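retry 2 of 3: previous attempt timed out while embedding zinc ion. Reduced batch size to 1 and resubmitted. Inputs unchanged:
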Amino acid sequence: MLQDPSTKYQPFPVIKLNDRQWPTKTITSPPIWMSTDLRDGNQSLFEPMNAQRKMQMFTMLCEIGFKEIEVAFPAASKTDFDFVRSLIEDDHIPEDVTIEVLTQAREHLIIRTMESLKGAKKAIVHIYNATSKPFRDVVFGMSKDEVINMAVSSVQLVKSLAAKQPETQWTLEYSPETFTATELDFALEICNAVTEAWGATSDNKVILNLPATVEVATPNVYADQIEWMHRHLDRRDSVILSLHPHNDRGTAVAAAELALMAGADRVEGCMFGHGERTGNVDIVTLALNLYTQGVSPGLDFSDIDAIGRTVEECTQLPIHPRHPYVGDLVFTAFSGSHQDAIKKGLAVQKDDAIWAVPYLPIDPKDVGRSYDSVIRVNSQSGKGGIAYLMESEYGVVMPRRLQVEFAGIVQQHTDSNDGEIIAADIWQLFSTTYLDNVVGTTISYKSHRLYDEDGKQGIDLNVDINGESHSLKGQGNGPIDASVQAFKTIGFSVNVRNYEERSMNSTVMGSDANACAFIQITDPNDQAIKEVYGVGIDPSIITASIKALISAVNRMN
Ligand code: KIV
Ligand code: ZN
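retry 2 succeeded.
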């Protein structure tokens, strides 16, 4: 049993912002995205990426469309330092991409960091120091003034070193680490001091990054903190207000979304939420959430499976099968009622209409996923999913009552075989239940001849019954009725309850099989009125119908 938390934890204090504006805002354009996969994401891996994996990740991030990428913590490791050098020296940085590097606000680390950037065309230098009370009092033993001084003198050092590397177009980023746990007025004071020290202008903006280093409160609190800063910062037009949410409470995406409504311009995060502890905010989810609201995110996730595979390869960490947008199971419905609704929704969804398919917040095709993976069938599934797979994979559009009958047969199979059944196995089950019995069971079709007699339809029907050839004759209102009468002559009496025929998609089954007939019969002598379906497939619709009748008679007996 969990202990009483009230003696150990306390609620996060409410931010005094009674006229908060963010709750009525919507996000109408994407933020500036900054990927920190190669820094925050990398430092938190069991095995940080080697140079080859870092390059693979960098290339992918550029292809996705990130224009700002934090590539390293160069003063922290030789691998990171060398990686920055190879990006610059071997000319790997696209013209429209700016690399960013992180350093603590400490002199020798800043000097080493600036060295790593020699020759870069553009660079963002990201300095940080922790600002919250526990860090000031316990970790560093510093007063507020000393913490401000640490930040300001570091900015001045970056400025003077930058002046000696004029070939580079410099941007400064400053993070008051542990911002969300810092008194807001102190966070404001230190941020304003940095803006001032850098000499930020509207043409040379400073990036002020306000991290939820540890997520400590509900997302609305982060939004309040950001709106408060947005409204109080000096020279707001000279500042790019950036977010860096972590996911300790599992609400980083929500926090980032609300904080964007609150006035932020930029978001730092990682692919699929990699990063320290529970991760940085997941940029893929954020971007695709925007996409599903009709806002183009400016990042290309049209082949999300390929991106997922590259991220898994580089990080050596698996993506959860239920991870939003990318997980193996997120476009999959096992429940019968979900499958039914999806099938109906997909059937009426027009290419040029607003997306409105039940249970699918995004068209799987938009992220390179196919409908094939949408419907999966297990013992919980109903007729909808089975019908969908039969139609999409094999071109067989089953009548609703056959769907119900066949779903029961599939369920028996999944119950006794314990688990999921794939489309090919469903087709196999369908064939052995409804089609294969036409050949090699009690009665099998051989040939027929139709003729008119006294204004009626006559038939000569050649069948094998238990391996022996029989030639049957019948007359009726049409070919099916004539066949029913022909069977009566040898003691197989049936009533036809329902008949449907469909043409099949020849690309699915091949050009030889293009008509499908469904016949539902009852036994006139059976009090219980057992209804049985038979199915026939043939290039000729008449032959398909006779085969369907034979299939039903076989199943009845
Ligand atoms: O989470 C954090 O606070 C950081 C800073 C270095 C920006 O990663
Ligand atoms: Zn971080």
